[in-house]
Structure to design on (198 residues):
């Protein structure tokens, strides 16, 4: 894309493509990267020229809760390899049924999981336990939620209860053991290091 692509008129996509955050990756496995349009109104994959390759159901503009509101989420997606097999999915929380894993090649929902509603603007994908495959992390009020899965199903791996509402997690190997630790700040002013094995 060397010029802006007009997606607001709903001529190319069935919903207003605003307030999104793009993600760039070779989602379809081709040599050229594609653009995931991650908007609270619609989720779509665009080719390098901005042409839609697929799109999810759109929703009507805010502040209405009508028109496929549960089919979209304002929580930004993460690129995640749940099974650790090199086949990436996109996943997020905040859908009507909870967490969704989506095949980025065609936009098909691989699975949905009832899970706590997020209170953060994005999810994170990371291998937090050293086992094959990534986990999806997000905050739901005073809880930190870890979701594990594969291409056919997901499950809540663990929930960590904080003392108050939590910040977005920061993830790093703080002690050099090869495993990730998760740092969150609580609304009561405390900072917590959550080990990868809960």
């Amino acid at each position: 894309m060397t010029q802006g692509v007009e997606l607001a008129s709903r001529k190319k996509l069935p919903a207003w493509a605003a307030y999104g955050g793009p993600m760039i990756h070779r989602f379809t496995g081709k040599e050229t990267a594609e653009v995931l349009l991650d908007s609270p109104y619609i989720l779509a994959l665009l080719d390098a020229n901005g042409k839609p390759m697929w799109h999810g159901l759109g929703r009507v503009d805010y502040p209405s809760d009508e028109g496929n509101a549960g089919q979209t989420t304002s929580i930004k997606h993460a690129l995640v390899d749940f099974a650790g097999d090199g086949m990436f999915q996109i996943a997020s929380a905040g859908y009507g049924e909870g967490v969704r894993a989506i095949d980025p090649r065609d936009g098909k929902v691989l699975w949905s999981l009832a899970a706590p509603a997020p209170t953060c603007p994005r999810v994170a994908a990371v291998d937090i336990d050293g086992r094959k495959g990534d986990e999806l992390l997000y905050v739901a009020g005073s809880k930190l939620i870890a979701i594990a899965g594969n291409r056919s199903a997901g499950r809540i791996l663990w929930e960590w209860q904080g003392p108050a509402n939590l910040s977005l997690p920061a993830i790093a190997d703080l002690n050099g053991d090869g495993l990730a630790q998760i740092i969150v700040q609580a609304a009561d002013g405390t900072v917590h290091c959550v080990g990868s094995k809960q």
Notes: Residues 6 and 27 are 22 Å apart (CA to CA). The first strand starts at residue 21 and ends at 25. Residues 76-198 form a domain with the Lipocalin fold (CATH 2.40.128).
